[in-house]
Amino acid sequence: RKLRSGIVSEVWLQLGADLGQLREGLDFLAQLSGIRLYGSVFLPTKALLAKQRARPWAGVYLSDEYLGSIEGAERITRQILDTYAGFGVTPLLESQVEDAEALASLLALFRSARGPRIVQLVEEELADSTQKHDR
User: Fold this and answer.
1) How far apart are CA 62 and CA 39, in angstroms?
2) 114 vs 11, more confident
3) pTM, rounded to two decimals
4) DSSP string of 50-112?
5) pLDDT tens, residue by residue, 93-120
6) Structural domain count of the chain
7) Cβ distance 82 to 114 under 8 Å?
8) Which domain does 122 fall in, by range?
9) 121 near 93, Cβ under 8 Å?
10) Neighbours of 38 (CB within 10 A)
11) d(CA 94, CA 92)
12) How far apart are the C-alpha atoms of 13 and 123, rounded to whole Å?
């Protein structure tokens, strides 16, 4: 009811590895007009996977395939990004990008998943962030 009331202008999606459930939710949200969608993603790293195996975030489902290897996590992340792109969801990175290597990994991951639009969004955010930092 709240979504159909017109009060809600944006919806933020928490990361999860259940692509079927993600698509089902996005199919539902796609029926509503005028709502901006944002979806979280992780930049898979060994440290992140170890942390999520030991202490997963409440309400976040990450499959054994996701948690089992960086390659598996990257594959699922690309599928999530592809799904986001198909539904016009703006990705929100929930991982720290602390150095050039992490930034290169992030851009490579985004380029491999429906490429240009997602990379354009990331590059725009980086440019805005750099300009704010330089001021």
Assistant:
1) 15
2) 11
3) 0.79
4) HHHHHSPPTT----HHHHH-HHHHHHHHHHHHHHHHHHTPEEEE-S---SHHHHHHHHHHHHH
5) 888 888 888 888 888 888 887 655 666 6
6) 1
7) yes
8) 3-134
9) no
10) 13
11) 6
12) 22
